[in-house]
Amino acid sequence: MKNKSSLLLLYKPPGITSFSSLSPVKRTLGKKVGHAGTLDKFAEGLMIVLTGSFTKLNPLLSNMDKRYIATIEFGDETSTLDPEGEVVASGPVPSLETIESVVAQQFVGTIDQIPPTYSAVHVDGKRAYRLAREGKDVDIPSRSITIFSASIISWEPPCLILSVHCSKGTYIRSLARDIALACGSRAHLVALERTMIGPFLLEDAVDPMDTAALLAHADSSRERLLKIGHMGQLTVSAEASLRLTYGNLPPKGSIMVSNVQETDRYATVSDEAGHLLAIVGLDNQGFPNKVMALPCMESE
């Protein structure tokens, strides 16, 4: 089976791992599959998945901000900060007024956050969750993250539903833990839904189990590529199209149409018939200087 190059927006249901959710994609589009950020097993929502040569485009997607809807249950903190862990501490359920004050004053803007012990963060060369499962003490340094907004959707004690817009690297499980501690309480997440990654929305995602929808979605990858920041468009001659099939950059004189802005750092490259040939990096003059992905050279 050939590896079809595509940029996919997929819905991951709760109860399965991010890795498992990619199985139908591998069966349909080929085994060369990667993702631009996982979701915890209990969580659901939007995942960006790259296939074929587009797996090399991960760096273009790694810095995007995200939106979540988090359901926080106050009263008990679990070892994993989610429904799958054991209760390790308890505290009184705070009032809504206390929560509102704490969130507004301490959890909007740039803050320091310590990732969960059960996370994929590397500590001394090993994943933190592996060390935790071995019963070892895990000392994870804090990191700077940004909460652009945090809005309360509903409060039915002991559960708070919170909408969060945050920077990359933010752990919503840690956010729930820290809000509770600041309220003099304890908490863990009982549900989490990712609704946005950069310009991409959950409402545009497809179910990977729907093969027809997945194939159609893969074929429309170009429109999603153009939503990535600083992405221009180039059309090249037939000669340059042939050169690209051998992995060679198109010469400047072969560019027939250039729709590139000064701030663009990447571009899609198409032939005169509109077939997508490549994704390239651009120099300061807007000319290709690096081949990043070659869908015109699909691998077996």
Short précis:
The chain has 300 residues and is an alpha+beta fold. Helix content is 21%, strand content 36%.
Written overview of the protein:
The strands form four sheets. Strands 1, 2, 3, 4, 7, 10, 11, 12 and 13 form a nine-stranded mixed beta sheet that branches. This protein has a five-stranded mixed beta sheet with strand order 15-14-16-17-18. Strands 5-6 form a two-stranded antiparallel ribbon. The protein has 300 residues and is of the alpha+beta class. The chain has helices spanning 18-21, 23-29, 58-61, 96-106, 128-133, 172-182, 211-219, 221-225, 238-244, and strands spanning 6-12, 33-35, 44-51, 66-74, 76-78, 87-90, 109-113, 122-123, 126-127, 143-156, 159-166, 187-197, 200-201, 231-236, 255-259, 266-270, 276-282, 288-293. A hairpin with an 8-residue loop joins strand 2 (33-35) and strand 3. 21% of the residues lie in helices and 36% in strands. The longest helix is centred in the middle third of the chain and has 11 residues, at 96-106. The chain has nine helices and 18 strands. It folds into three domains: 6-64 and 199-222, Pseudouridine synthase; 66-192, Pseudouridine synthase, CATH 3.30.2350.10; 231-297, Archaeosine Trna-guanine Transglycosylase, Chain: A, domain 4 (Roll), CATH 2.30.130.10. The model has no long low-confidence stretch (mean pLDDT 92).
